[in-house]
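We store chain and fold; example below:
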Amino acid sequence: MTEHYSSLKHMRISPRHFIWHRDHPSPATDAMLLGRLTHTAVLQPDRVLLEYAVWPGGRRDGKKWDAFLEASTKQGLTVVREQDWTRACAIRDAVRSHPDALALIQSATHIEHKLEWNGVQGQPMHGRPDIIGADYVADLKTTQSLSPGLFSSTAWRLGYFFQAGIYLEAVNELFGMRERSFYWIAVESNPPHDVAVFEADVESVNRGWEEYRSCVSLLAECEATGQWPGQFPERVKLSAPGWAGASEDDVDFSDVEGSEE
C-alpha cells in the first residue's frame, strides 16, 4: 500500500495508532477545510474562486443551504464558511506581503505538486510538498506563536522535521540529488497574522529522516507479522512524582482549589 506522511506520522506514536488511523480516515472538518482553503489562497490565489464557493449565510441548514450546497457540488466546488474565507484571505495578504516568503513562492518550480516515489526499503510513498524550488523545499504552516523556541518544539512534536526528511528524500529522488534547504513559512493563525520564514538545520532534518526510516522498518515488521502493538507492549514500572515525597512545609498549597485562606 502506498503511504502518505499524514498516515505514516501516526507510527511515531505506535503501530496500533497507525493502523487505526489508516483504517479510519478522518472526515473533513471545518478546521481541515480552512487549512486547505488557506493553502490555496496563499499559494495559488488565482485558483481560489475556481475551487471554492463561499456560503454567506449563518447556520448551514434549511432550503437555501441545501440549494446552495447542491449547486456548488454540481460545479465541483468546495463550500466554505464566509468567516473562513475572510480569515484565509487575511492570511494570504499577510504571507504575500512578507518579502522572503513571497520570494520562495514566486521562485518555485512546483506548487502543491503530487509526488510518487519509492522511499526507504522500497516503500511506495506519495506526498504533496507545498513549494519546490531549484534548491529548496518549503511548507506553509499556521501557528499560535512565532517564537523560534516554541515553533521548534511544535515542529518536532507534530512531525514537521519528520515530514521535511520525507519530502527532501522525494524531491532528491525525482528531481536529482543535490543540496536543498528546507523552509517553513510560518504565519500566525490569529490576527495580526505575523509571518516568519524558518530554515531547518541539516542535523535536525536528518534526525527527522532517521525517524521516518525507523517508522518504515517498523511498518514492514508489523505487516510481516500481522501484529500492531500499542505504545507500551511491556510492563512499565511507575514511580510516584517527585513532589509526593516532600513534606507539607515544602509544598505551596496556595493555588490548590479548596485550600484554606
Summary: The chain has a mean pLDDT of 90. The two ends are 62 Å apart (CA to CA). DSSP finds ten helices and ten strands in the chain. The chain has one domain: 3-229.
